[in-house]
Specification:
single chain, 232 residues, alpha/beta, Rossmann fold, three-stranded parallel sheet, 11 helices, 7 strands, 47% helix, 13% strand
């Protein structure tokens, strides 16, 4: 019997749906009863992680803990967080529940260590909150991380995620994809060996897009690990 998996979701809702779709696609099911039981707390009311980390908003931690505990009460044997920036709080979340909380960014670190030598230059697209908190530097200390410059971060990445017509506002995905691709171009001269889509909305926008370098979406790694552990 597969383990029951709980997902702390709603950050944003489309990313939660994308994670569910990836899990279903990766599950080697021959009939619907073979699929993994998923418990979803799709909670868009969780305060924005980036706004908090930039010192402009409420802490999301109380609602993240409430969600994790609720999933545990419902019977989750594994818990996943469908948001990169929320991994800033993963230590506190794990302390609040008995079920293991899968660490998407640790999975990313392990994947990169398998693929690339120490010191390799990695392009990273992420929220301002992740950048301010040094989240990716914490997980990837052995690599050279290349981020867009301040102007590209604000005018392209931030607008694509949080703008009035951004992905979180339900804006046109193609138009926001164009902004993200322009930000990717600003990294080209520094020759990264791959591109990390370190925000789930960015991964959504670049899904299936052909780039000059490999793109690694941590959500794909999380889905793969969920299936492996739930069925293992």
């Amino acid at each position: 019997m597969p383990k029951t998996v709980g997902i702390i979701g709603g950050m944003g809702p489309e990313s939660t749906i994308a994670l569910m779709q990836k899990i279903v696609a990766l599950t080697p099911a021959k009939k619907e009863q073979d699929h993994i039981r998923l418990l979803i707390d799709n909670r868009p009311q969780i305060p924005d992680r980036t706004e908090y980390l930039l010192g402009r908003g409420l802490s999301p931690l109380p609602m993240l803990l409430e969600s994790a505990r609720l999933l545990g009460k419902w019977g989750a044997e594994l818990i996943a967080i469908a948001c990169n920036t929320a991994h800033h709080f993963i230590g506190e979340i794990q302390e609040a529940v008995d079920a293991p909380v899968l660490d998407m960014l640790q999975l990313l670190a392990e994947e990169l260590e398998r693929r690339y030598p120490p010191g390799a230059a990695l392009g990273v697209l992420a929220t301002g909150g992740s950048r301010r908190s040094g989240l990716f530097e914490k997980y990837l200390p052995g690599f050279t991380l290349i981020f867009p410059g301040e102007q590209a971060q604000e005018e392209l990445i931030r607008e694509a995620i949080y703008g009035a017509a951004g992905i979180k506002a339900g804006g046109d995905l193609a138009a926001n994809r164009e902004k993200i691709l322009r930000a990717v171009q600003t990294l080209k001269d520094r020759r990264p060996v791959c591109l990390i889509t370190g925000c789930t909305e960015l991964g959504l926008a670049l899904e299936g897009v052909s780039l000059e370098i490999p793109a690694i979406n941590p959500l794909d790694l999380l889905a793969r690990e969920i299936v492996a552990q739930a069925l293992g």
